[in-house]
What does this fold into?
Amino acid sequence: MITRRFVLIVQGVVIFHMPTETQTLRLALIGFGTVGQGLAEILHNSAAMLAAQHNFRAAIVAVSDLLKGALYHPDGLDIAPLLEAGRAGKLAQYPEQPGLVRGLDALATIQQSNADTIIEVSYTDLKTGEPALSHVRAAFDAGKNVIVTNKGPVALAYKELAARAALKGLYFGYEGTVMSGTPALRLARTALAGCAISEVRGIFNGTTNYILTRMESGATYTDALAEAQRMGYAEADPTGDVEGFDAAGKVVIVANVILGTSLRMDDVDRTGITALTPADIDAARAAGERWKLVARARRTPEGITASVKPERLPRSDPLAAVGGVTNAITYETDMLGAVTLVGPGAGRRETGFAILSDLLELAKLRTEG
Ligand code: HSE
It folds into this structure.
C-alpha cells in the first residue's frame, strides 16, 4: 500500500526509493437503508479494483441505524454478513465475535468508535435538518471527516459546516446531495474551475420528471405518481417531490456551494407540478415545447435568486430532452457557454457511488498531505 515515494536525488541521479503504506479509512455509517447498503455493496464488490487501481482501502467499523440496530468492531465488520443482516432489517443477526459492540446510538457511534470518517445517510428532513445536522456537528467536534448524501444539513447549514470542517482540517463531502453519483457539484468544483458561472438550471427531481414524462404519453397524474412511488424514487412523503421542496433543497445547495451565496429554503420562489393539467401538457406539445420542473439559480444585479417552477422549454433545450427519472444540470459559463450534464439523480448504487467518489477524493487528499 503505497502513499508516497520518498526519492533522494543526488546530482540528478535517483538513488533511493522508499514506498510507505496508505492508511485504511475507517468508516462509520449513520443509517443503513438503501444508500448505506449500496455503499457497503460497492466496497465489498470493488475492493480489489479500488486497491489495485486507486490504492484505496476502507473498512466499515460501525453501523448505527435507528430501526435496524447498531454494530461496532474496531477492527472492521465483515461486509457479507453485515449486508445480509441489513437486508433482513435486523443487525442483531450479525454473528457474534470477540470485540463486537452492539447497540451504540448514532452519537455514541460518532463519538466513541475509532472511525475516522462518518458517513451520514440517515433520512432527510429539509425543515430542521435533524437528526443529521447534529450528527455532522458532533462528528466535526470529534475530529472526524464527514460525507453526507442527506440533503438537510447541506441545504440548511452549508456555510457553518464547511467552516467547522476547515477549522479542523477535516473533509466534508456532499456530492451525493444533488443528482446522486452524477458529478453535478464536482463538475463545477473541478473541471469548470476558472469559469465564471452566471446561472445554474436543472432537473433535480426524478419523481416529478417521471410524472411529467408519463403525462405526455397520456397517463394520469395519480397513476404516474403511484408508478414513481413503486419504483422507489418518490420521497416517503411525495409532497416533498411534487410541491418542489426536494428540488428547492438541491438548488439551495448548488447556489451556496457553487455560486458562493447564502440562500435559505425560504428564499426559493417555489411552485410544484400539482396544478399542471393534461390540457397544459397538450398545449405545450402543440407549440413544440415541454413542461419541466426547472430549478434555477442565477446571478442578478440584486444578488443570486433561485426558483423551482414548471417551465415550458423549447425542445431544442437539452433539459427538454431529459425524460423519466433522469436528472440534468446546465451551467451557464463565460468560457464555454452552456455545459449540460445528464445522469441519474437517485438510486442505491448511484448514491452509494457518490459516497465512493467523495471517499476517493478524501483518500487522495490524505495521500497528498
Ligand atoms: N425523491 C427524489 C427524486 C430522490 O425523486 O429525485 C432523490 O433525492
